[in-house]
What does this fold into?
Amino acid sequence: MLPGPNDSRWEAIVDDPNRYSFSFLALRILMQRISRRSPLSPAERTAAIDEVYACFKKNERLIAADITAVFG
Amino acid sequence: MPGRLYTLTEAAEAISSGAPLLIAGDEKLLTQLPEGRWIGGTIPYFMTAEGGQVNQDLVYVDTLPAQVTDVSVHSYAATDLDRLPKDAFDNGFSVIIVPANSAAHASYAANAVEFPGLFDRPVVGWVSGVHLNDLATATAKVFAGSGSRMSSDDAVVMHVELPEGVLASAEIVNLFRQGSGPNLTFDSTGFVQDTVLVDGLPRVFSEYLREIGHDTQLPLVADYFGAMINVSFQSVPDDGSPVALYAPVFSGIRYKLAAPVGDYVSEFESHLPAGGEAPMFSCNCILNFVYSELEGKRTGDIVGPITFGEIAYQLLNQTLVYLTIHD
It folds into this structure.
């Protein structure tokens, strides 16, 4: 089950992506882009959280393994 | 249905049937094709069921599967490419072809990962090219739904809609892994680099590569959270001039030179996904074709154009890209 967009765990993913591993290609490329920009400005951080949530949500059926790995 | 080589007549008939198609072939053939629901790009190299081929008499055609409910064909100038995700269908995928060495090629390579919404659905595709004997005289082209709508500057995209419950996924097969050498980083993003930071120490990039005797068939490899992403060498001048690459390196990413690969074909087959749906679309790199001498050799059941660059969300090098539909 995917947490809602306001769940604090989305912030944790963006703030410290290296704590997580991902198997979905889109997510790996997106997280690499976010990671290389760190530290993010507040506006960038908010945008990144929205983007990561959208990537999970749009691809929810394909990334069950990542949802389990990240959210348990 | 896997793609295959068609005669010009067969391709024209397929277009006339109304089927949405992805077409690759020699420019003189593509310019003769009628208007319809297709996009295309120039390239005379193909991986077929019979093995790798160089063919300037036939065109390679992928027919989109029956699940597809709608398609739309767009051309994008380099400055408009960020509209790509906004124009896509809510559920589906997009196939992009960009002409090698065009403004669209450079722009997509450097900027695609920044496009809002890029990761909401798969984007796959390739960089069109020319016969390697014609590099000095010919230019790569793309076609937007007609042999007369040809461009060497813009990208062409087919946005594809799938019905609810049917999904597409983009995957890659990359045989290269990071070697055991130092971290290589760059102060700027770009296709051309004169300086590399070797474990943080600046060096003239071309001199460094010569000093260590690097085999430039082995690309730079970055680890994107487990996805190995290559940047291939185009030229390493002897006079200390900048090194040219087939994709940009990005500042802030750590690269390593790739470890050697054994026999390409056997390694490749061992990396292919076992079971599951057959890919609807795939493409592989001209450098893999040339360096691994794939002409006449099969790479599993993977078929498709052999290209001057591959796209799975972002530009890739020396990588096989494939797209699978999931019911």
